[in-house]
Amino acid sequence: MAKRVAVIGGGTSGLACIKCCLDEGLEPVCFETSDDIGGLWRFKENPDPDRASIYHSLIINTSKEMMCFSDFPIPAHFPNYMHHSLIMDYFHMYADHFQLKRHIRFQTKVLHVTPRPDFPHSGQWDVETEAKDGRREKQVFDAVMVCTGHHCHPHLPLRDFPGAANVMTKQTGSMCKEQQHNVSELWCNRINTFKGKYFHSRDYKNPEEWRGKRVVVIGIGNSGGDIAVELSRMAKQVYLSTRRGSWILNRVGIKGFPADMTFNKRALWFFRLLSVGFLNKWREEQLNKRFNHKLYGLQPAHRVFSQHPTINDDLPNRILSGTVSVKTNVKEFRGSSVVFEDGTVEDDIDLVVFATGYTFSFPFLPSHLIPVSKNKVSLYKYVYPPGLECQTLAVIGLIQPLGAIMPISEMQARWATRVFKGLCKLPPMSAMLKEIKAKEEAMAKRYVAAQRHTIQVDYLPYMDELAKQVGVCPPILKLLLTDPRLALNIIFGPCTPYQFRLYGPGQWDGARQAILTQWDRVTKPLKTRCTPEPQSQRSSHSLIFSVSVAALLSALYYSRASLHALIADPSSLLDKIRAFLPSPLTTH
To answer: For residue 110, which of 29, 178, 225 has the smallest C-alpha distance?
Structure first.
C-alpha cells in the first residue's frame, strides 16, 4: 500500500507537496482550514483569524518566469509581475491540470499531530482534525508535511515597541523586569488612548476610506512601502516611520526587463569570490544612481546585503512629490499626536498602520518537536527537525528567500517525498546540528539583527543545495558538449525553475523548450503596440557619407586622367567630398 502523507495547508507549498507526493506514488491528504486553495494569495475582505491577509491592489514582486512551478509555466500572456487575482488563477490552473483538489479536505482544521507510541520503529503520526460542523476525526499517517508558512500571526508590537522603554532606560540606566512590565503597560495604555484608528497591515484593504486623512505607516518592509505609496494617492499626508531605514530595489531591471531575471544567473558565480565589502559598495552605488538614499532619508546604517530587500518602484517618486514623508521610529502617542524619536511631533493623525510583520508557530505539534523562539527555529536545511528517530516530518516553505518562494517550496517537497520513500538519506543528527549552527552563525554575521532575518536564504545557492540532494542539478559540462545552445542559456540566462527538470527524478520533457522560450513569455505581454524601428540621425549621416565616398572613388576611377591633378592639390579633393555631404556637416 502507498504511504499516506498528511499535508497541512493548501497554499503555495501545500499544492507543491500534493503534486510531489503523487509523483512519487504516495497518497496525500491535504487539510485546509478555508474553503479554497491559495493560502496567503487568496484575497478576503474579512480575513480569517490567525491567517495572513493581503490588500486589494497587491502585486507580487517576483516575476512570473522565476516564480512558476518547474513543470508548469505561467501563460505567456500573463504580465511579468502579477496581481494577486492572476496568481490565484495560475494556482487553480495548476491544481486542475494535475488534479490536486480531489486530495484536499477544505474547511478542516488540524488540531493535534503527535508521534504514535511505536514512532521510533514505524515513524507514524496520529493526526486529529476538526471539520466545519465540529466533527472530530483521528487518522494515522506515515509522514507529515507542514505547509503553514511564516505569515501566521500578525505581529502588533504594542508591549515591546521601542519608545517609552528606551526613554526610561536612558534616564535610569537599567530596569528590573517589574519596571519593564510597568513600562510595557504604560505603552499599551498610551496606544489605547490614541484618538485615531490603528491596525495591523493585514487589516488594510484599500485607500478610499482614508481620503484627505493624515496617516502614519510604521515599518518599511514590502508591505509598509506598498501601503504608504497607495495611501499617499488618497490621504492628505503619509508619514513612513522606519527604525533603521532601508535600501530600495526596483522591479524593473536593466532595459526594462524583470530585475530578478538579471541577477539570478549562474554566470554571476564569480561574485561569490569577491569580498562582501566590495559587493556592498558596488550595489549601493548602483542603487544611489537611481536616487540618493541619504538625501531621501532612507539610507540605513547597515549595508545593502545585510537586509531582506524592500522592492518598490514608486516610493522615491512619492517622497519627491511630498506625499510621503520619511520619519524616524515612533516614540509615543499623545492623544491624536504621534511623537517620533527625533523629537518631531505630527498632530491630528487619523490612522496608524503597523506594517510590522508576522510571527509563526506550530500549535498542533508538541512544543518540544519544533521549538520556536522569536521566529527562530532549528531545522536541517530549513526542512527537517534533527532530533527525530524517523525523518517523517518535514516543514515546507518556512523560508524567506532573496527570490521566489514557489520553486523553493517545490524543491523542498521533491526532496522530502524521496526521503519518506527511503530514496534519499539524511546525515546523522550530529552532522545536522553542526550545519544548523553554521548557518545560524553565518546569518547572524551577515544580516542585521531582526525578527525577519531568521530564515533567510539566497535563491540560487539554496536551490542548488537542495537539487544536489534530489539529484536534479543541470549537468552543464555535459550539455556544453551535447547541447551547447541549452548550456549557454543555463549559464548566461536567468536560473528559472525549469533547469531542475532537465534530468534526474521528476524529469519533464518540456523543460528544454521552456528554457529556450522563456524570454518569449517575458516579452509577450509587453507587445501591445506595434512600434516602428527608428533610424538614428548618426546612422543616417554615416550611410550618406559612405555612399558619397563610394561615388567619388568611382568617379575618380573612370577619370584617371585627372588623378595626378587631384593628388597634387588635396584641397580640391576635400571640396569634392564636401559637395556630397549634408550641410552643415557635424563633426563627432
So the answer is: 29
**Residue from 168, 218, 163 nearest 332 by CA:** 163
Cβ-contact 408, 459 below 8 angstroms: yes
3-state secondary structure of 285: helix
Residue 430 burial by Cβ neighbours in a 10 Å radius (0-12, 13-18, 19+): exposed
Other Cβ atoms within 10 Å of 176 Cβ, number? 9
Q: What is the pTM of this model?
A: 0.86
Q: How far apart are CA 351 and CA 521, in angstroms?
A: 42
Q: Three-class SS of residue 551?
A: helix
Q: Record the cell numbers describing residue 127, joined without a space.
A: 493526526
Domains of the chain: 4-152+359-474 (3.50.50.60), 158-164+187-356 (3.50.50.60)
Helix (H, G, I), strand (E, B) or coil at 247: coil
Question: DSSP letter at 69?
Answer: B
For residue 407, give the nearest of 24, 84, 52, 63 by alpha carbon.
63
Question: Is residue 113 helix, strand or coil?
Answer: strand
Question: What's the half-sphere exposure (Cβ side, CA atoms, 13 Å) at 474?
Answer: 27
Whether pLDDT at 184 is above 90: no
pLDDT at 532 over 90: no
- Alpha helices, DSSP H only, in 291-392? 315-320
The whole-number pLDDT of residue 276 equals 87
* Three-state SS at 125: strand
Helix (H) and strand (E) counts for the chain? 20, 22
Report how far residue 570's alpha carbon sits from residue 490's, in angstroms, rounded to the nearest whole number: 57
For 321, counting Cβ atoms within 10 Å of its Cβ (0-12 exposed, 13-18 middle, 19+ buried), the class is exposed
Residue 576 is predicted with a pLDDT of 58
Question: pLDDT value at position 130?
Answer: 97
Q: Is the pLDDT of residue 569 over 90?
A: no
Give the pLDDT band of residue 577 (cuts 50, 70, 90): low
83: left (phi over 0), alpha (psi -120 to 50) or beta: beta
Q: Is the dihedral of CA 193, 194, 200, 206 positive or negative?
A: positive
Q: Is 203 exposed, middle or buried (0-12, 13-18, 19+ CB in 10 A)?
A: middle
How far is the C-alpha of 391 from the C-alpha of 455, rounded, in Å?
21
Cα–Cα distance measured from residue 169 to residue 183, given in angstroms and rounded to the nearest whole number: 10
Q: In what order do the strands lie in the sheet with 337-340?
A: 330-334, 337-340, 345-346
